[in-house]
């Protein structure tokens, strides 16, 4: 990031990095996607790997990432991002490759691809945004929707007896031998933002060391899908999402980065 200097008597505390495009973000007010985009691209900028980074974005709100990330981006079919990323990494092993996927993609139609990619220990970063609903297509129930949580396809709340339990895909991934670094974060507070940025940096550095698959889950809100204001959705997330999807490291290698 460029040095920050006083401007017109004011101290400049933030400047958009060149790894983000000039396209205004169109995400719903309060959505966490924009913050996650910024953190990813700040890490890419600080590591000076813009020309060596490739992102893969599939279907869902994730698909718009290529509008905002000023790096090489590749679209993928619904649920197939990790398969596409695998191909890119194997053909171009010197690239830093990551996928950017939502829960309706990664933990539903893409469950098979996700599990086998991690089980093979593909040397990529998987970024998983978990807001508990299909955000783009109307707020339907997702595999990660909480018990009793109301969605457009579970208007009376998710019934465990008929709809099953919420899927803790990150816990499943952490059990696989190919998973090297698995962690869960959020972006609802400044402290959480700093922790997530550090996790992205660690993951890219492990990829540089060819350690295997790094998996970073971001528990996020979806004000539109949850039918709440941004403030209400953050509070609801803290009270309901975090107890079921607790933040923190799930699998930490012995070798840690400073």
Structural summary, described in words:
The structure is a single chain. The protein is an alpha/beta fold. It has one domain (28-251): Rossmann fold. It has ten helices and eleven strands. Strands 4-3-5-6-10-9-11 form a seven-stranded mixed β-sheet, sandwiched between helices. α1 crosses α8 (190-208) and α4 (103-109) packs across α5. The longest helix has 19 residues, at 190-208. The radius of gyration is 18 Å and the shape is globular. 48% of the residues are buried.
For the record, what CATH class applies?
Alpha Beta
Q: How confident overall, as mean pLDDT?
A: 93
Compute the number of structural domains: 1
What's the helical proportion of residues?
A: 25-40%
The appropriate CATH architecture is 3-Layer(aba) Sandwich
Main sheet makeup: 7 strands, mixed
Counting DSSP H or I runs of 4 or more residues, the number of helices is: 10
Low-confidence stretches: none
Secondary-structure-based class equals alpha/beta
CATH topology: Rossmann fold
The strand line-up of the biggest sheet is: 4-3-5-6-10-9-11
Order of helices and strands: EEHEHEHEHHEEEHHEHEHHE
How would you sum up the global shape? globular
CATH superfamily: Thiamin diphosphate (ThDP)-binding fold, Pyr/PP domains
């Amino acid at each position: 990031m460029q040095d920050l200097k006083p401007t017109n008597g004011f101290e400049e505390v933030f400047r958009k990095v060149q790894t983000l495009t000039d396209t205004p973000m169109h995400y719903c007010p309060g959505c966490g996607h924009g913050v996650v985009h910024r953190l990813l691209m700040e890490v890419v900028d600080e590591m000076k790997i813009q020309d060596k980074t490739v992102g893969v974005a599939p279907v869902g709100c994730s698909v718009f990432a290529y509008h905002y990330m000023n790096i090489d981006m590749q679209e993928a079919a619904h649920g197939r991002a990790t398969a596409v990323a695998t191909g890119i990494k194997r053909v171009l092993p010197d690239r830093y490759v990551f996928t950017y996927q939502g829960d309706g993609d990664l933990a539903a139609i893409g469950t098979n691809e996700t599990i086998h990619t991690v089980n093979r220990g593909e040397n990529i970063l998987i970024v998983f945004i978990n807001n508990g609903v299909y955000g783009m297509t109307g707020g339907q129930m997702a595999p990660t929707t909480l018990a009793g949580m109301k969605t457009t396809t579970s208007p009376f709340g998710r019934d465990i007896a008929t709809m099953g339990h919420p899927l803790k895909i990150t816990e499943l991934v952490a059990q696989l031998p190919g998973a090297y670094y698995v962690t869960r974060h959020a972006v609802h507070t400044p402290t959480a933002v700093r922790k997530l940025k550090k996790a992205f940096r660690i993951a890219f550095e492990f990829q540089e060391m060819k350690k295997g698959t790094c998996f970073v889950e971001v528990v996020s809100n979806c004000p539109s899908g949850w039918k709440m204001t941004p403030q209400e959705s953050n509070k609801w997330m803290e009270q309901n999402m975090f107890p079921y999807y607790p933040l923190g490291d799930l699998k930490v290698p012995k070798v840690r980065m400073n």
